Amino acid sequence: MNALSEDLKNRIKAYLPRYPRKQAVVLPALHLVHDEMRTVSNEAIVEIAEILELHPSEVHDTMTFYEFFKHDGDKLGKTRLWVCRGLACMLRGGYELLEHCEHKLGVKCGETTSDGRITLEFAECIGACDGAPACLKDDVHVMNVTTAKADELLKQF
Amino acid sequence: MAFEPVLLARVAKLNSGKLEGYRADGGYAVFEKVLKDKQPLEVTTQVKDSGLRGRGGAGFPTGLKWTFLPKDHPGPIYLCINADESEPCTYNNRILMEKDPHQVLEGIMLSSYAIRSQCAYYYIRYEYGDAYRSTQAAIDECYAAGLLGKNILGSGFNLDIYMHRGAGAYICGEETGLIESLEGKRAWPRIKPPFPAIEGAFRKPTIVNNVETMACVTQILRRGNDWFKSLGVPPDPKNPRDAGSYGPKLYTIAGHVNEPKCVELPMGITVRDLVEKHGGGVWKGRKAKSVNPGGLSMGFADCNLPLKGEDGKTEYDIPLDFNGPGKIGCLGLGTAAITVIDDQTSMVDVLHNVCQFFSHESCGQCTPCREGTGWMLKITDRLRRGQGRREDLDVLVDVADRIGIMPGTTICGLADGAGWPVKTAIRKFRREFEDAIQSGAKSVHSKSLQLVGAH
Ligand SMILES: Cc1cc2nc3c(=O)[nH]c(=O)nc-3n(C[C@H](O)[C@H](O)[C@H](O)COP(=O)(O)O)c2cc1C
Ligand code: SF4
Ligand code: FES
């Protein structure tokens, strides 16, 4: 059984020439798989390990360190929304924003709406404090997020 | 004379990230000249003599660090660019990468030439998607223009720059954590020595430098050392070990100010001037109670606490050079990220937020850091729930004093950075903490108590 498509495998392999060791491709490979499949299944881990000539447990070890990748039956929604809880955001309403989003979406941080649209997360400072309170929509900053702006944002996804 | 920004000179321009515009503003001219006319050692010497100190937090002299590389090393030498920028309330690297990526890249090219590296890894935090894309686009332009790759402009010098994205972990900013992460392992910082200059990425000699440091290298080579040394603060004659605080610096202002923003100024501006003249003052007509002068790890200043022997001045008046914050018990200048806390805000809430961060980001490798940050979070959580105990403050300070490379109990400086805000906040605002314990008052964020406590 193939968890990863040939195309995805080729895109992982394309990273190999950049580094003197294959293991360095673990993080790029995890990102590629996670972005496309919205999770990194155990089968995917085995196939990444095969390409990189590692034991699957080595890939798994690195992956779980970051608490960033969804795995084992958990799956990202179509959009991942991170609400910053860092100090600069807390000082300008970040906690209230987080609470508002949880309430609005009916999920807790780390969970995905039942229609699979949005995964809500909290983030430590996302480096957008000039626009606090701030969010990250996938990997793009959204600044000065009032609750009204958040409602607009949530509708767009 | 008003100071004209140099590092930020181009950021407001239309298409400031494009090669064409960068060239039109004189970009890459000095790199071309250096390739033709200068030996690598000359570049290192110039950077060393300029007095440039690293902008990533530790303030280590950049040129000096480069000289720690083994001489005539036969194998590869790597340059790692630290764009992890995860110190809370810091965002100056982001602005440089999003708006003027070529200025940073030129510094990387010059530095790689100086240290004889043919391969630079640009480690960027995942959350900086826009910065990643603008920098990658700039790198692509450079390859197309023959500024990167093999035999650059016929000089015989080869250089590749590869971007490498992180995955949301603060510890990847610590230089050996960064290296481990780059190698595809968990980002556990390494025991030093060996320092990266001797054994770094892939066990080869490696230099790790910050993004802003690279932009400074570009400007130093372009404008010369006299220019760089005309800005900032010369070494303190009373301190023979002080290397001075030369050059322009990007300060970021966040928190309770009217205009949070990133500004470039000569090193040494006071917190008060930064907030009042550049940050639009404290918001809502309030007063500043406390300031964090350089990223959370640096600890807190008490804006009302008089400075000894300086009439009428308070901790709000300290200069933001490499020595200033240390004079009031803070850890250092750190990332020069200033966060202002107004007089309506509870320091209990602030400290809880800080402890929440460090407990979440401790990599777990050293027991004093892993357990200590966890305890400090638990205790500050108790405080904000109005369930504080009398002995809690002493326990907090005791834990904070025991974790870190300074007391010698941990591998990396994250733990020192976790302890410092706790020590400084409790020392300087003890009355407020004691009152909170006595009154049993709950945090104004009490609605979110459960939510944030759940993680
Ligand atoms: C916990 C921790 C986090 C750090 N995070 C960063 C960071 O995000 N960016 C950075 O440039 N330096 C960071 N540093 C400092 C680096 O270890 C290193 O000193 C720096 O990248 C060297 O570059 P420079 O000499 O150009 O400043 C961190 C240090 C520690 C202990
Ligand atoms: S001090 Fe903390 S963050 Fe640093 S290596 Fe030890 S456990 Fe990890
Ligand atoms: S604290 Fe939220 S972006 Fe920095």
Q: What is the averaged pLDDT score of chain A? A: 96
* Count of DSSP H/I helices of chain B: 17
Number of alpha- plus pi-helical segments of chain A: 7
Which quaternary structure do these chains form?
A: heterodimer
**Spatial arrangement of strands, main beta sheet of chain A:** 2-1-3-4
Number of domains of chain A: 2
Strand segment count of chain A:
4
What would the CATH topology of the largest domain in chain A be? Answer: Glutaredoxin
CATH C-level class of the largest domain in chain A: Alpha Beta
What small molecules does this complex bind?
flavin mononucleotide, iron/sulfur cluster, FE2/S2 (inorganic) cluster
Q: Can you tell me the CATH topology of the largest domain in chain B?
A: Rossmann fold
Q: What integer is the average pLDDT of chain B?
A: 96
- The H-and-E topology of chain B, N to C, reads as HHHHEHHEHEHEHHEEEEHEEEHHHHHH
Principal-axis shape of chain B equals globular
Strand content of chain B: 5-15%
What overall geometry of chain A do the principal axes of the alpha carbons give?
A: elongated
Main sheet overview of chain B: 5 strands, mixed
The CATH superfamily label of the largest domain in chain B reads NADH-ubiquinone oxidoreductase 51kDa subunit
Content of β-strand of chain A:
5-15%
The level-1 CATH class of the largest domain in chain B: Alpha Beta
